Amino acid sequence: MDTELLKTFLEVEKTRHFGQAGDNLYLTQAAVSARIRQLENLLGNALFNRYRNNISLTPAGERLKPHAESLLTSLNRALQESSLGSDQSIQLAVGATPNLWDSAMQNYLHTIYQQLPGLSFRAEALGREQLSQQLLSRTLDIGFLFDPPKTEELVVREFLEIELVLVSSYSDVNYAHTFDNNYVKVDWGTAFSILHANLTVNPVTPILHTTTGRIALDFILANGGSAYLPASIADPYVESGALFNIADSPVVKRTVFSAFLESSEKQEIIQQALTILKGTEPEPASTLQP
């Protein structure tokens, strides 16, 4: 199958617009339509419901999407590994949810690179479901996430604990009123969302939802507000006077899990990497320092 057809299919699914997909792929709208028709004829099913100003996937399109993503990612990885230099014998593909890269994984990547010479890397920021899918398809070698995947094919272990603290740009705000003024809610996993609902007396309407602490930090520094952030990220800003700890606010501890395929052919290097990281204190990305 021509992989360009799959790339076009995924671009149309992402943009929900044939013209926009064409612009992104440097194709005419007619060429995009022709590729989609060719793919539909090849598979014998319509992939998109075409309504005026509304394009959506059909059930066949929904089934094709994860396979198309996995196939293209696997192909890209095969091309990358085939082009490794003579001093790079193995590529390690590491994935983590977006909220973990800034709080720990960025510097962990530096540590692995420095202590395991000869490796090349691929780093991905993915949602929990995409992480699990790519681990199972061998597109990723190891993943880090708050909500552990529940499948027997993956080895899942507790990896580290992150302490989340409630901080604000306002020095005089108390816990009862923290959520009333520019509160930013960060996705720190399912357990955090459940706990968060129990911590607040009244329903909370955040000014911003985000999947990363970096976005929350930048927003409250620029516009004022409050957010739960990893203590390792928040503490330097508290020490500098840019942020303030909220008195009487509960500290939330979240466990981060590592996951890798039990039958992975890279078991040895994965175990080496995990052993090195277990003995390393997690630090936020250097670009997050005040």
From TrEMBL:
Keywords: DNA-binding, Transcription, Transcription regulation. This is Transcriptional regulator, LysR family protein. Gene3D superfamilies: 3.40.190.290, Winged helix-like DNA-binding domain superfamily/Winged helix DNA-binding domain. One of its GO terms (molecular function) is transcription cis-regulatory region binding. Belongs to the LysR transcriptional regulatory family. Residues 1-58 form the HTH lysR-type domain. InterPro entries: LysR_HTH_N, LysR_subst-bd, WH-like_DNA-bd_sf, WH_DNA-bd_sf.
